């Protein structure tokens, strides 16, 4: 552990370089870029939070904010707007609390959306690569065989976001997605105007 973990990130455990053979974050103080065109988005990883007491949009740390902004940036980069971003955000909130998980915490799942290589979402590295994971979730990737948003619900804007998320994810707890719609709407309103579409 480093002294950097005395920040708000101290509630989360970072994987150090070499521990379990997993890649470490280069900095616990990474902040979300305001413009995706000017800065590189990171691929840092964090372990699962110690509790599941509830997601608080106003208590997000820098990593969660960065990932929320990146989901918005990639979604708008594909020409999709608030409704698609809302579905992606509620899914990442429920599945990972907006953390990019390196270790497999549920079977072979990993990454922002807890996608599983064994069910066609790509390789171990694909599901943990944030852009590839978002692309796969949206249904605009070439590496994933699983149906994403655009395949599962082409008319997704006409559906409740939680229902659409469940069509993509097939969760054992489908009710959880709809519960996070207010948080996702808040994130969109808070950050969408400050983040340029990501098209790399």
UniProtKB/TrEMBL annotation:
Any idea what this protein is called? Answer: Muramidase
What organism is the protein native to? Brachybacterium sacelli
Protein origin, superkingdom: Bacteria
- Keywords assigned: Signal
Q: Which residues form the signal peptide?
A: 1-36
User: Cross-referenced InterPro entries, in alphabetical order?
Assistant: TAT_signal
